[in-house]
């Protein structure tokens, strides 16, 4: 019996399911502020934990109307209302998603959580007015990987944020943008604030500095294995999939990225045969989206062919999506170690 292929799956996702799925991905189900371990060499990380905790408390206080339990914490004083938006600014691998998910967990519902791409997909499925109606009933919208890659999508989401904020929804976001918007590899908060126009004054911007935690003191990605060994290991791993890299790339081109998460749900391990550099940027960006969904679900990866860091060419890494590609490489490397240890 042959090993199942991702390319043979036909995932579907209704608009109602899209709304219901707006929660932190499985990898972040159990994260909390006290499970975030700040790097002692990076004081901004401990400060970010404190800022996120204070923001979550403000959202909880606003949603409870400053009830007796909240007043008891402040000796009957009214808590500082602060700003309705919080923006976490920093490089990849510093724990911004951990902090964002922890903030979401600390706030009572109704609430929603999704990546920037998932949010634009939701608007595409429901329409702008219906998305505003549904999310306006929530206390918090958490947006991971806020992007400035596409001006149209950026303005769509910033208009959505403005509508939701006016309705009393608090918004927390993390950054993910183009290198020409970065200063010394960092997201330029001023550019973000300028993009959201009237929302600028409503956001507190919090820096989270540091190296990529996924690779501190850890080895590089394991070397690719031979096709035969990869095929045998895939067949011996319950719930695994095995795909030829080129065929999977072609399949992803026919599948909307909003369905990539459903595509890999229930998969225990992904095996990719004949990995090579992405032939163009469209393919590369689809691989980034797939890598994010695999990482969300902690699905380990084995490959043959070229190494995972070879997915993105030097030309790609020198271009506008450098940060996306480096994040994807970081995440795929971490996932490849998971099976290498087993």
Automatic annotation (TrEMBL):
The gene is zapE. InterPro entries: ATPase_AFG1-like, P-loop_NTPase. One of its GO terms (biological process) is cell division. This is Cell division protein ZapE. It holds the Pfam family AFG1_ATPase. Residues 1-13 have a biased composition (Basic and acidic residues). Keywords: ATP-binding, Cell cycle, Cell division, Nucleotide-binding. Residues 1-27 are annotated as: Disordered.
């Amino acid at each position: 019996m042959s090993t199942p292929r991702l390319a043979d799956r036909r995932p579907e996702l209704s608009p109602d399911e899209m709304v219901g799925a707006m929660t932190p991905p499985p990898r972040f189900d159990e994260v909390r502020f006290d499970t975030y371990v700040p790097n002692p060499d990076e004081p901004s990380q401990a400060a970010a934990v404190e800022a996120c905790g204070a923001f979550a408390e403000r959202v909880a206080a606003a949603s409870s109307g400053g009830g007796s339990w909240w007043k008891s914490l402040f000796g009957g004083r009214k808590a500082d209302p602060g700003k309705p938006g919080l923006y976490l600014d920093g490089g990849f691998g510093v724990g911004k998603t951990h902090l964002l998910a922890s903030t979401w967990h600390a706030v009572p519902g109704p609430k929603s959580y999704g990546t920037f791409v998932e949010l634009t997909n939701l608007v595409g499925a429901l329409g702008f007015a219906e998305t505003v109606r549904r999310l306006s009933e929530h206390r918090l919208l958490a947006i991971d990987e806020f992007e400035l890659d596409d001006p149209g999508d950026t303005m769509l989401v910033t208009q959505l944020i403005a509508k939701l904020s006016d309705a009393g929804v608090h918004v927390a976001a993390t950054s993910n943008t183009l290198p020409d918007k970065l200063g010394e590899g960092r997201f330029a908060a001023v550019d973000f604030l300028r993009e959201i126009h009237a929302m600028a004054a409503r956001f507190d911007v919090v820096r989270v500095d540091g190296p990529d935690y996924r690779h501190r003191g850890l080895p590089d990605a394991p070397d690719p294995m031979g096709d035969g060994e990869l095929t045998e290991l895939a067949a011996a791993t319950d719930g695994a999939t095995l795909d030829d890299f080129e065929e999977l790339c072609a399949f992803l081109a026919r599948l909307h990225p909003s369905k990539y998460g459903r595509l890999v749900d229930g998969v225990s391990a992904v095996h990719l045969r004949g990995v090579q550099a992405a032939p163009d940027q469209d393919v590369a960006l689809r691989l980034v989206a797939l890598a994010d969904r695999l990482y969300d679900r902690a699905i380990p990866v084995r490959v043959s062919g070229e190494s995972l860091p070879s997915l993105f060419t030097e030309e790609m890494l020198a271009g506008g999506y450098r940060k996306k590609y480096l994040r994807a490489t970081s995440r795929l490397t971490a996932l490849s170690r998971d099976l290498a240890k087993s």
